[in-house]
Structures are given as C-alpha cells and as structure tokens.
Batch of 2 targets.
Target 1
Amino acid sequence: MALPFESFARPAPRALAEQRHIELQGEVVAYRLVRSARRSIGFSVDRQGLRVGAPLSVGLAHIENLLRQQGEWIREKLTLWRAHAVLLEAGTVCLWLGQPHILRRAAGRVSRCQDGQLELAARAGEADLGAAFVRWCKARARPLFLARLAHYAGCLGVPTPPLRLSSAKSRWGSCNAKGEIRLSWRLMQFDPQLIDYVVAHEIAHLREMNHSPRFWAIVHQLYPDWRAARQAIRRLARQLPQLT
Ligand SMILES: [Zn+2]
C-alpha cells in the first residue's frame, strides 16, 4: 500500500489542518495550523517548519498573539533547522545505521567507515559532504534491503519481491498491487532493527494490501516488537537532516 507512514496511526478525532502565514519580527513565516479536540495551544518547530496545534474554539487572533510572543524562539529554531538542512560539514555528526558518526572529508576518492567516523569522498564543486553522504547511503542500501527482503519473504513463504530504491522523506516503504516494494535509502540512517520493521511491514502487504487487523497480525508474526519500532521511527524522522 502506498500510504505515508503517518497514516498508520489510528485516525485522530476530527482534526482540521490549514496552511497559514504570520509575520514574526519582520519575517513572514509559514505554519501549519491543526485544530482538534485538544485543550491548549501548542507549537513545535522541526524540519517541516512551524506547526501549531489549537483547540477548535480558540480564535485566530489569540493564536497569532501567542506566536508573536514566542517569535524570537520560533525564529531561532527555524534558523537552526535551515542551517542543518543545507550543510553537512566535516565534523557534523550523522546517523549511519543508527549510530552517530562524525563526518570527515576523505583524502582520496574512496569513502570508508572507521572508528565512529565516516570519511566521505566529496566531488569537485561539492561545497559540503551532503551529496557524498547520500551516495554513501544509496550505494549500501540496495544490498542490505535485498537481503532483509529475502529474509522476511522466506519467513512468510513468498518469493522475494522486486525492490526499487526511493528517495522518499517520510514514506519509508511502500508496496504496490504488482507486489513491487519501494524502500527509501534514507532508512540507512536508522538502526538495522528499525529497517527490519519497515521491510517486514512491506512484506506483510504481499499478503494483505491494507492495514486491517489481519495485516497487523502478519506483521506481529514477522516482527513482534513492531509497535516500539514504529514509534522510534516517528521520533527519529523528525531529527534527520533534510538531505536532498
Ligand atoms: Zn503499510
């Protein structure tokens, strides 16, 4: 099923979302306003920007006043995330298979991983190590994913499905009606156990193309600790650098 990862959550009781703008200290800031049955106003800043949660009954003027009061904090957080999104300098810490690694610039053309450091070979014209990190992940994603697909397909007694690598930022995996599975190379930043959950989830779709109790029963059989893995992935997803 080609569903975004978030859609696996139980449906929230009536949430209304809209995209809005507000001027904070001279900068026009876009934000996502989600109204729901919650009791208080809350907001967060992450790689997707500013998000505001508010009760259904609170007026927009009240919400905007609160945002202006917190304008300095919001803008600082946004600036931090933007910087994080653009540059992966030498010395930056990145997650590789769930472990923090310090990025270094390789002297030659060969990238390697050693002693908690990722030495990455940047190409001419590349200002930072972002593109080299993406190449590093992509090159190692296919063999790992294929091995894990074969493992879980074997557990379920089905043939190993064809794999396509994707670059999806939050749709970690998907399975279409033809039984082809797509997995995002970005998963290579996760612990192998979490990658296994996504693989097991998609393999389970080869039997059940839905998220019914029957589907989750298959997931449970393949990967008993699926609930914790799903939560861990949601948490981690917000912390990953925004690589192109
Ligand atoms: Zn699914």
Target 2
Amino acid sequence: MNPDRSPDCLKCEYFFVTWDTAFPRGCRIFGIKSRQLPSLEVKKAMGRHCPGFKEAEAVKKRIEDDHSTDITV
Ligand code: SF4
C-alpha cells in the first residue's frame, strides 16, 4: 500500500457494492455509501487516509497464487 495515496477500497475486506445506483460503493467499517471510493470520503472527512484498510482474503489469495511457481520436473 502506498502511504501517499488513499487505500484502494476495491481490495479491502470492508468494501461492498450497494443496491443504490446513486451511491454504489460502500464501506462496512464507516457505514457509508458513496459515489466515489469510500476511502476518498474518509480522507475528506478525517483529513487523513483511511486507517481501516484490511486486504481482502480473496485479494491475498490471488496475489499468493500469482507468485507461486509450480515447477514440476
Ligand atoms: S475501511 Fe477504508 S479502505 Fe476499506 S472500504 Fe472502508 S474506506 Fe475503503
């Protein structure tokens, strides 16, 4: 994660897609729905980057799978 940028909510455990087409992006931690990424709303409200980011298990697994090498000889 780059400390100079807001965390990528799309890779966060707490991100979800809402049913509200006007505010389709949600955050379970902060209980917000927004048009843009919730981490940008958090930055606006708190004046600092979101402290709640937690890498989603699915993302972790994908990264592990990408870095694993299956070398069978
Ligand atoms: S906790 Fe932070 S990074 Fe995660 S979805 Fe909420 S705003 Fe985004």
